[in-house]
Design a protein that fits this description.
The complex is a heterodimer. By secondary structure, chain A is mainly beta. Chain A is built from no helices and eleven strands. Chain B is mostly beta strands. In chain B, strands 2, 4, 5, 6, 9, 10 and 11 form a seven-stranded mixed sheet that branches. Chain B has a four-stranded antiparallel sheet with strand order 1-3-8-7, with no helix packed on it. In chain B, 36% of the residues are buried. Classes of the chains: A mainly beta, B mainly beta. At the A-B interface, strand 10 of A face strand 5 and strand 10 of B.
Chain lengths: 119, 107
């Protein structure tokens, strides 16, 4: 069945780089787009970026200068890297699969990984 | 960016009651709207897409409606397992944006 699972360090020092991995199963990264969405505790959801089936990417303009998304299709993994982390980046980070088709909603989500920024 | 305004921010209702949550877009999103349910400590789960299409496996007491800039999620005959936060998301225009959420509790 379709599964996504985020992994990565839960603690990042201020100004350092966050690196997260989303490992997927039950579908191919060359057939479905995968997005990253984050959620500060008790708050709403923010779309961060997407890696398209062809490997190209798009980012939220608010994060574009700090964010990079890549993948390894052979390992069914999508990577998120975001630099210059600050306390406002404290959030739970989710990867989510976009429903197959031309509509950009998310039919499967990972469990999320909580990231804290602190020295 | 398209702004999504959800109301109310919180809601208390009784078992068996009908509940309606609203979502207003800052411009016409042409039914490019999804609703998600998020239970405490869990990831969001898709309920509705294309404003009014029920996602596979979602109970029929959930329904979506609306057009233009105004959309709503209705829950008929509220059940205890419906206690959760609900978010709308527009996907008509990039970047995709979410409403601030509605926290639904039992009265």
């Amino acid at each position: 069945q379709v599964q996504l699972k985020e992994s990565g360090p839960g603690l990042v020092q201020p100004s350092q780089t966050l690196s997260l991995t989303c490992t997927v199963s039950g579908f191919s990264l060359t057939s479905y787009n995968v997005h990253w969405v984050r959620q500060p505790t008790g708050k709403g959801l923010e779309w961060m970026g997407v890696i398209w089936t062809g490997g190209s990417t798009d980012y939220n303009s608010a994060l574009k200068s700090r964010l990079s998304i890549s993948r390894d299709t052979s390992k069914s993994q999508v990577f998120l890297k975001m630099n210059s982390l600050q306390t406002e980046d404290i959030a739970t980070y989710y990867c989510a699969r976009e429903d197959g088709g031309s509509a950009y909603y998310f039919d499967y989500w990972g469990q999320g990984v909580m990231v804290t920024v602190s020295s | 960016d398209i702004q999504m305004t959800q109301s109310p921010a919180s809601l208390s209702a009784s078992l068996g009651e009908t509940v309606t949550i609203e979502c207003r877009a800052s411009e016409d999103i042409y039914n490019g709207l999804a609703w998600y349910q998020q239970k405490p400590g869990k990831s969001p789960q898709l309920l509705i897409y294309n404003a009014n299409s029920l996602h596979t496996g979602v109970p029929s007491r959930f329904s979506g409606s609306g057009s233009g800039t105004q959309y709503s999620l209705k829950i008929n005959s509220l059940q205890s397992e419906d206690v959760a936060s609900y978010f709308c998301q527009q996907y008509y225009d990039y970047p995709w944006t979410f409403g601030g959420g509605t926290k639904l509790e039992l009265k």
